[in-house]
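Case study 2.
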Amino acid sequence: MADSRSKYDGQKPRILYIDMAYTLKMVRERSLEQEFTSRECGGYFDHVWGVHPIADIPENRKLNYDGFKVSTVEFSANQTIIEGSSAYYSLLKFFFPLNFFVSQVRFVIYLIRLVKRERISIVFCTDPYFSGLIGLLIKTFTRARLVIWVVANNDEAFEANGVLASPQIFRRRWVEKIVDRRVFSGADLVAGANQNNLEFALNNGAKLSKSTIFPNGKLIHKQHLVERELRDKDELFTNSPATYHFIYIGRLLDVKFPDDILRAFNVICKTMPGCALIMAGDGPMRADLEKMALEMDIQTRVHFLGSISQDRLANLLGGCFAVLSTLTGRSLVEGALAGLPIVAYDRDWQLDFISRNSAGVIVPFRDWQKMAESAVHLIRDPEEAKRMGAASRKTGVEASDTEKIYEHERSEFDKILKR
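Prediction:
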């Protein structure tokens, strides 16, 4: 492992990692600690400050309005977690937009002072919008390098259903596009989670000479690396009469099209008896999806599990027959590591991932009828399903080689620190 030294103080670099995907509470509840430990890049950094600017929102936490206070928790010897709130001031309690703006300006000033005081050399942001703007402001007032990690193709998402990347903050896509170009062009390095996501960044202001790919395989929980045969059997399979269990893993959001999964499964049920569907994930569409399953008369065959731990997810995957994926990220790797054939839409990075070793079947975007037909074909051709499962496991192992991923990340960090 490289023992890189920062030119700031002769020590290993330090990083401020701004990520709004999960709060500390959510990470602990769902056994997602790898989300945080991966930030240390295999020991490359002397210390990591993980930041969630508005942790109250994903947790639906009640605001205190008791002045500017942030939560600081020592996650490990090498990592500190800092969580802020969307609003702090009681005088502006009934004027939330103004309170939000003033509060976030104060929070950014706090981070700028932290970066200067702790001699932090890299600011890493996991989206080009709210986190990216904060990172750009920090870069402007400090000597830190700015890295933007792009984990979604927001142009494709907007074209598909008109959903904004940050609807609560920017309200209009043209505003987001301006932010895209300003943040991407101002970054010292733009890293896509895959080629598709990187192309989105390059089409919106990122410079090819300052771009690379940082795969999301580094986020995989260790339980998913266990061979399928060695995983515990989940109680769901003990109580389920079904022979073939399909699984969808992801948030229940319209941008993910989980309703298409139900449509496809309805066709599967009409063609092949003895099938069940596991919906592993939660979100605002859950009630509508449960109603949809009831109307299709497949409610007894669909298991809505909500948010579950990574240990249980790994065990569930070990007992499933195949993965159905409309649009997923890290969970696509998790399904592959279980050795499951994958039936997925031709969307975002899914074609690239599945076609590497022929780990499944790609169908046209939003063609849930074709998704169902492909799934039925796998049931009728067990040898093909077995072959795809083996290829899937191989693809997953290759995609989650953390040492290889960290080695590449360290090389790119070295470049921008020397630049």
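Residues 14-219+401-418 form a domain with the Rossmann fold fold (CATH 3.40.50.2000).
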